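S1.2 Input.
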Amino acid sequence: MQMDDMILISVDDHIVEPPDLFTRHMPAKYRERAPRVIDHKGKDVWFFEDKVVPFPGLGSVAGRPPEEYGMEPVRFSQMRDGCYLRDARVGDMNANGMLAALCFPTWTDFAGTNYAKASDKELALATIQTYNDWHVDELAGGQPGRFIPLCVVPLWDVGLAVREVERLAAKNVHAITFPDNPAAKGLPSIHSGYWDPLFQVCQEARVVLCAHIGTGLGVPIPSDDAPQSSWIVNLPLSIAFAASDWTFSQVFVKFPKLKFALSEGGIGWVPYFLERADFTYNHHKAWTRQNMGGRLPSEIFRENVITCFIDDKFGVESRHKLGVESICWECDYPHSDSTWPRSPEILWETMKDVPKAEVDLMTHLNAMREFSFDPFSVLRREDCTVGALRAQAKAKGIDTRPVPGRGGIKAAVDDTRVVTCGDVQRQLQEASTA
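S1.3 Output.
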């Protein structure tokens, strides 16, 4: 197998919502109050219910030189078109040799928790359904075989969430975004039983719960003067708290076929986690009275949890200790952690000595199975490889060279000073001021 023979499906990318999404698609009854993009003090911001939501900063830096990453962009003109335009995104995917992507929303928060804060819940529900229909019918439907639909549910009412999953399942949607820890967002915990009707319908309809890092507890800042790198390195590790919470909950005892994805969580930490989880269960179950339904924690994890990685050599080397059948690959476009446009080269350094059958599992077959996604029903397999897709991009002249001067980080003192967590928080605050 050669690098160009790989078929890449990313189970963690992001889409910046186009500025006209809601003004074009919201029902007439709600259009005057729909979320919209306005110019405020030289910034493009989303405006909804008299609240301003700024643009995503490090969440849309694809195409910039790394030295210009920062809390910008604050305007669409500072973004690469692929961040928010479907056909441009597909062109960028081709240039990266990537067949398909599952895309999290942006301005609503990765898990859609911002909607739960809305005062007008009827309007919030209409906004969610408008986003979902756009995502399914226009984003995914407009480029068959290129996007795995990922939708949002109304988290403030489990009955409404169930009905929305049922509506989406009828549209062949098999993934929703869900907080890694809803209790951390002021919602009922996964241990309360409140979410059981949602878990039940997701199990029946084969809908995966995708929990992105940062959607629950988040990652604490060590100190104001800590290097920003110390915070970034902890991003994937933070999902381990959610992994423990879900694995030892009764969710997978009651719903043994339910699938839960640890999106952007990495995999290198998982073997130790599984070893520790089994030790904890066996060593302490006499007094904790933990009920695992006849399975070890490691068995529950391997059977119910989908793990995801961007670049994780140690994790791939340890793949058999965590279960190669549950591992999926991620690109994370257009975020700062993304390997675009060199994902195949970077991934191949990890995969080149792995048997082809296992490469295929981790790069696309696991994603196809777990998300009930079959791109080969509409696209020829031979047109879906890294080499074939890049040939298409080359024929269309897609340029992936970094474009400087679109904004970026401003050194707090001088060009040699290490950027601290406090620097970035202040930049974020400045970018958010409206």
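S1.4 Remarks. The chain has a mean pLDDT of 93.
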